[in-house]
Amino acid sequence: MSERTKFMLEEKDLPQAWYNINPDMPADPGPVLHPGTKEPVTPDFLGVLFPMQLVMQAVSTERFIEIPEPVREIYRLWRPSPLVRARRLEKALDTPARIYYKYEGVSPVGSHKPNTAVPQAYYAKQEGVRGFTTETGAGQWGSALALACSFFGLECHVYMVRVSYDQKPYRRIIMETYGADVTPSPSDRTQYGQSLLAQDPQHPGSLGIAISEAVEAAVSSNGKYKYSIGSVLGPVLMHQTVVGLEALKQFELADDYPDVLIGCIGGGSNFSGFAFPFLHRKFTEGKSIRALAVEPTACPSLTQGLYTFDYGDTAEMAPIVKMHTLGHTFVPPGIHAGGLRYHGMAPHICALYEHGDIEAVAVGQVETFEAAVQFARAEGILPAPESAHAIRSAIDEALEAKQRDEERVILFNLSGHGFLDLGSYERYFAGELEDYEYPADRIEEALKGLPVLAS
Ligand SMILES: Cc1ncc(COP(=O)(O)O)c(C=O)c1O
Fold first, then answer.
1. Which residue of 1, 38, 279, 431 has the smallest Cβ count within 10 Å?
2. For a substitution probing ligand 1, which of 140, 342, 382 has the most ligand atoms within 8 Å of its CB?
């Protein structure tokens, strides 16, 4: 085992291909259904929404899909990202566990999101569309897509959840710096937004609503714009596998191998990209590993949601998929990890969870910030509130290993930094953060709106 702290790869070690888990899936993630007919979608329908290359990747059974060179060229601006042994955190916890983290906060916008934004923009440019529409919560995804669009000379129209638009101006300014046009959602630019504003001019918005607006804007543009999604969809998870593929190589340098992988889950993209290459090893070489997905108690889709078919958005315009869902009209409490406030979950993750290949846990907001601060004081990096969920569970695993006097090897994905989330830290230090328990009544209400399918 190496005595080093940082395990860096060279640019030449950047993966040549993404890992596509489709051919290795031990359980079927289920079909994608048309929101109107509720029949399986055709590539033509999806092609109206997404670049065709993405649609083809969604159904591909090729195990490795080449990363186009123009995408690799951009990845090289920050990739390969570091793998770090958290030696100072180990000491602070006085644990026999070895803790490693893969750090995605080194990307220009500070998170893993550009790993998929860049290829999506590349494919859209190749198809000759004018630009993308998309949604964003607190702005991590929107800033990643704005960056990618600026690299490829595409327009980027972002519908940003209104509460975040009002409360978190800095990410909006980043998006605007890259040339994106940012609209608070609900907006008067779409029919759906207009209908909501007519009921409530002060409507705070939600991620599901912003998705509906972005989808409507793309579909009604006669092909000028496509819709870009930052998580959930199979190809998006696949683009993120650069993270896990690099980590596998870095563990060779460390002369070690993880026993447990830990990542936070909003729609499932950073966790998948990080864990799938290790699961590939497990499926094909029998190399055992635990994979633990961490979600907030305020929005516990995997641990408490129903595994059934539901719409991807609030207005029922996006495709229906099989997933653990809290109901597409569910509006989660306003926790500070904005990127984890989604009612559903990537179908691939749900199928793997049901099959027993993935474990999941829900953690509270206050204990998550406690872990974030402990990590920052030991390792120096101030984590994004989303990523801090993974840190919470990594610390819990390390403390459990200590109790059992076990040399457990823990790897977590530090999906982003929290430099633009300082308001949340300020509220934590002021003792103003609330812990939300499972919002049972609201979820029960939202689950009444599930689509009715012909059996
Ligand atoms: C830093 C960070 N981590 C994690 C997430 C959760 O998304 P996903 O589950 O798709 O990785 C987000 C979403 O915005 C994010 O910004």
1. 431
2. 140
